[in-house]
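Below is a typical protein record.
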Amino acid sequence: MTPNAASTSSGPSRRSFLASTAVATAAVAGGMPLLAACGGSDGGSRDGTTSGKDAKKLLPTYVASDVVTPDIPSRNGSAVGFTGKLDLAGLVTSVPEKLGKGSKVTVMSPFWGSPPKGGNAYYRAMNDLIGVDVVWQNQDGNTYDQKLGAVLASSDVPDVVVVPGWNMTGKIPSAVIGKFADLGPYLSGDAVKEYPNLAAIPTDAWQRSIFGGKLRGLPMPSSYVTGIVPLYRQDIFEQEGYEVPRSCDEFMALAKDATNARAKRWACLDMKWTAFNAFGVLSGEEKSLGWNQVDGKLRYRIESNEYLEALEWTRKLFAAGVVHPDAELGKSNATDPGPKFAAGEFLIYNQDSSQWWSRTAEQAGQNPEFKIWGMDIFGHDGGDPTLWAKNPAGIFAFVNKKASKAVIRDVLALANVTAAPYGTKEYMLTNYGVEGTHYAVEDGVPTKTDQGNVDVMNAYVMIASPAATIAHPDFPEVAKGQVEWQQRMGAFTRKSAFYGMQITEPSRWTNLSNDFEQLEDDIIRGRKKIGDMQQAVSDWKSKGGDKLRDWYRKILDENGPAAG
């Protein structure tokens, strides 16, 4: 039996999905309203670019859910948090009447792990609750882009297709516009009130769901606060009397003090992601987020002095010998760092915040002294950091535009159940399955049975999700820590010019910045020099970067920048 916290940290990215072979719960999150845009063809047109005023007409009316009251409310873009034990008798109903009318709905979605057989007890219970016959066409998440391209190029498209944001490349965005239905007539304005759980999805997650000038996507929202946390061994820090660093100089001093190669202890793994945050470098998560206005001019993240300074500081960590040899060899992101972190071979690493809970759960039975915690991101000079928001939704479900009105309404009935908030009967069924068959609750903690670990995987949770929620009934102190970390970091988080816009770059520039990540890694490991990056940036400008800047400038002139 495997315990599973009803946990959702920062919405699921490819990194967090692939970090686990058994994604058992949805990761959900939220944010604030904005304008949206959709990029267009290779010719540089912006088919469906939607201005703020026009986008407003498309968006569903936001109606906050009052079904469940969280223990920790959202602040500064954070998730809401639940820190109590789970009381099955206290679960409330958020969907009082079955909205589905019995349609058969085929759904194609990425799946990590071995898909269960159709017609299993979990699928039957969900379909009965919703009133819809959902038939899953699960595809390998690791090769999903290939299957997605082939299906969208064919005439045989399922009723619902889930598209992760990282697969929005090549011809996929134009296929989304051409193949999928406008949900505006069913959801825009007050129409969404027929589906209260969908109405409670934050507005800027819907904003990201505008493709080609129409509201087409059902979103899996995500908190806009960075999901990359510097995680550290709090127990060892306390034993050794180490202070959590508040600047890059303090980090270096701590790293040198903590490292003892003869004793097989190093300070950290590759800290590049934290360096980017410490120096205020624009987000590299999505290309459009890497652009921002500086003194009225658009600048890409790689053009900034801060970018070079972050690389240089990370290089100094490697040069000082404080980085674990696995990272020196480039293994740190390819292998599971958990065992060596638990063994104390290194004390700090940066990774998706979901590992705050997963590492705690892994070690709870075998190493009771083990304590992992999240380090606040510091400004490089000891001041407050400047952090940049990530986008407010990352995975979308679309409905075939050939679907009948009856099927569309049944898909929305399905989404209204899967978007139910934590603390409801619908959430428990969606995320845990049937009590007694798929899970049991012991001392307020839901624990998956072997059958639960087979049947209740990443299926229904991919359709639509509630606003950002973090709840770990087995480790409530971790849930509290994660939410409060997001709240503190959210206070320093800004939205860059294209935050929340749905943009697809013209294909002739798609690969323009592909080689920068490898060059970054070569520089910080001493294989290349900062001068090589400066030359690469110069080449990037001449090979299309400056023209791409002009293309983004036109979008900005027509839509205005993100607020905040």
